[in-house]
Specification:
The two termini are 16 Å apart. The protein has four helices and three strands; from the N terminus they run ββααβαα. It is 43% helix and 24% strand.
C-alpha cells in the first residue's frame, strides 16, 4: 500500500510534517480541526508531498525530518520538491 510524507505550511510560515496512506482523507481531517497540532495553525495548506511504497517507510522519513528541527532543510525540500533521504 502506497503512503505519503507531506508538509503543510500556514500563513505565519509554520510547518507541519506528517505521513498517511490517504492524503485526501488526511487533508480533510486537518481542514476540519481533527488534528490538535494543525487546529492551532493559521490556514495550513499542503505545499509538498512525496510518495513511498508503504506506511512504514513514510513514517521513518517523517520521524527523521521531525528530528532535524531545521527550517532551512524543510525549505530546501519544498524548493527542490524532493526528500533526499532513505528510510
Amino acid at each position: 500500500m502506497n503512503a505519503f510524507v507531506y508538509i503543510l505550511r500556514d500563513q505565519n510560515g509554520k510547518y507541519y510534517i506528517g505521513s498517511t496512506t490517504d492524503l485526501k482523507r488526511r487533508m480533510n481531517q486537518h481542514d476540519s480541526g481533527h488534528t490538535r497540532t494543525t487546529r492551532n495553525m493559521n490556514f495550513p495548506k499542503l505545499i509538498f508531498s512525496q510518495q513511498y511504497q508503504n506506511l512504514d517507510s513514510a513514517r521513518k522519513i517523517e520521524r527523521k525530518l521531525k528530528k532535524l528541527k531545521r527550517k532551512d532543510y524543510i525549505d530546501n525540500i519544498i524548493k527542490d520538491q524532493i526528500i533526499k533521504m532513505n528510510p
